[in-house]
Structure formats: C-alpha cells, structure tokens
Amino acid sequence: DPDPDPDPDPDPDPDPDPDPDPDPDPDPDPDPDPDPDPGDDGPQECPPAAEFIYLVSDNNTFLKFDPQIASATEVGVLDCPALGATPFSMAVDRFGVAWVLYSNGTLWSVDIVTLACSPTPFVAGQNGFELFGMGFAADGPETTEESLYIAGGSQFTWMGFANASFGSIDLEAYQVQALSTFPVGPGSPELTGTRNGELWGFFPTLSPPRIASIEKSTAELLTTHNLDPFIFGNVQAWAFAHWGGQFYIFYRGNGDPGTQVWRVDAETGVAAQVIENIGSVIVGAGVSTCAPLE
Question: 3-class DSSP state for residue 5?
C-alpha cells in the first residue's frame, strides 16, 4: 500500500500571522527613572527651620529665637575660617541659608541647621559698602521672589559720622547695586523684611531712635515709630527682625552685660522687654520671608 503523498499539506497555514516575539521591547529602558523624587529638584523653599528668627553673637554663637515663647536656644558655634574676624550682621533667606557678614567684609553662607559654612566670591567694599546691615524682603505681596537689601558704608558711617548708603546684593553675581542714601543720619540701620514685600529698618543712632518702613528704591522713610531714647539710646550692639506682626529688637547699650530683647508692636510702636539678658552680645539677626505676617 504505497503512500505517494504521505503528508502533502499537513499544516499549510498553522499560524497565518506568526508572532515570533509576542511582547517586543524595542526600547527596553528608555527612561528607567524619569523623576525618582519629584520634590528633590533643589533646595526646599520654606523648610520648617526657616520660620524662626536666627541670631549670631560677636563670639560666633549661633542661636534660634522662637518669638512665640520669647526664648533663645543655642544651635552651635560658627566655624567660618574668617581669619580672626567676627560676625557683624546676618540675614536668612527662604531656603534656610544664613548670610553672615564678618568684620573684615567677607560674606559667608551658613546652613541654619547644620551650621556648615561656605565662602562666597563676594568682594568687600563694593560701591563703598565696607560693612552693612542686611535683610531679605519679598519682591512684592504676590511673589515668593526675594531680594537682599543692605544699609551701611565705611567705618565712619558706623561710627556716626555719615549717613548710610542703601543698596542690594545680587546673590548670583555677588555684585552690590547702590540704590540711594538715607535721608536721615548719621549712622546706619539694621534691616528686616516681610513676605508681603515690606522693608523696615531700626535706626538706634538717630534722635530719637526709631523703626521705619523703607521705600525700596529711594530709601525714603515711610511709616515711622519713634522709640524711647532712655531705653534705646547709647547703643553698642544691635540687631532687628520682624515676625508675626511684631518687631524684635536685640539691643545692648554701653555697660549692659548682654543683649536685651524688646518686642515692638508693628501697628502702634509700643515696646515691651521680653528678655532682660539673652546671655550673649547679639550682632546679627535674620528672619526669612517664610515667617508669618501676623
């Protein structure tokens, strides 16, 4: 029984559309982790630590001041290699960085939590600003952008022989822009700003001493609160910050053992002492634009 065609077409088309690779992957890993941590795109704005006032003393002690309980706690001691110079003033930005000016004109950036200190390329003495007070203020009530304003000049300004100059620092180029000269003097104020764009100064060397809001392009003084010269006269060291609708003056007069802390109502200008002696000589205070307005 021969079989001329034992299997002429046993399976002519078993799979008309064969798929040798049922799950092709021409791009096996085009973007394996495009955004592993969407929140980790750089420094965090307004971390919890940035909502306090920070203080620095003439011997590099760095403190956190909580206005809600009127208490200061030591964070640590700054170790910026400033060649024997001491802190002169300070401001804090909304990323939790303290910008500390030393008495030799060098500017350092300091992490307010770890106190890690980094040098900056800032060149001292630009436009006559050898030493200055400083403070961040928002660029307006509807923005989180901020600018660093400065007030000061030469040693003669701080000794009370000239009116202070007013300017700002571009922290990308580390360039000083001179804006104006204060219409009152002599001497220089310390500065503080708010999240709604206001800039204020504490002028302890004027007669009488005062707190005043500052027009940010002309240095004109706007709203002004005069202070008691018997309390705030004869100043030796001072710093200044706004928090929650109140101003805080860190003040040491000649002969005082340490810095006093005074709270001044932003609406009325009424001052009340909250700490008789903080235990250090405070020369700089910084508060970010993250701090509450009221």
Answer: coil
Q: Is 45 exposed, middle or buried (0-12, 13-18, 19+ CB in 10 A)?
A: middle
- The mean pLDDT of the chain is 90
Locate all alpha helices (DSSP H) within the chain, ordered by sequence: 155-158, 229-232
Assigned token pair, 217: 């392009």
Measured CA to CA, the distance from residue 250 to residue 58 in angstroms comes to 13
As a whole number of angstroms, the distance between CA 166 and CA 193 comes to: 14
Q: Residue 35: is it exposed, middle or buried by C-beta count within 10 angstroms (0-12/13-18/19+)?
A: exposed
CA distances from 23 to 16, 19, 31, 33, 36 (A): 18, 9, 19, 22, 26
**Residue 150 · residue 166 · CB < 8 Å:** yes
Instruction: Please tell me the pTM assigned to this model.
Output: 0.85
Dig out the tokens for 111 from the structure: 């992490």
**183-225 confidence digits (pLDDT tens):** 999 999 999 999 999 999 999 999 999 999 999 999 999 999 9
From residue 285, how far is each of 16, 147, 169, 194 by CA, in Å? Answer: 80, 17, 18, 14
